[in-house]
Amino acid sequence: MKKSTFTATQIAGILKEFDLGKSVEEISREHGISRAAFYKWRQRYGGMEAKELKRVKELEEENAKLKRMYANLALELETAKYIIEKKL
């Protein structure tokens, strides 16, 4: 997964600009983001403050880490089962 070049504070600021009346075209041109990225941020983080947004991003990173750990452990378990079955 590609790491965002924008911090939580910057994303919250960009979304706040839209709430204050700036058009999506102006915002995307000014900050160098695509309209799709803006709408994705708005869908995912709309209405959140920078502090909440930072916490959500931390939780998403932790969740991804835990999923990788689970996948590794499941793979090791399958390998161990295969070895045990082969020896018997």
Helix share, percent: over 70%
**Mean pLDDT score:** 89
Number of helices: 4
| Unreliable stretches | none
H/E order of the elements?
Answer: HHHH
Total strands: the figure is 0
**Which class best fits the helix and strand makeup?**
mainly alpha
- Seen as an oligomer or otherwise, the chain set is single chain
User: What distance lies between the first and last C-alpha atoms, to the nearest angstrom?
Assistant: 41 Å
Whole-number radius of gyration? 20 Å
Report strand %.
under 5%
Globular, elongated, flat, extended or rod-shaped: what is the shape? elongated
Sheet having the most strands: none
Topology summary:
Blueprint: H1 8-19, H2 24-31, H3 35-45, H4 50-87
Helix pairs in contact: 1-3, 1-4
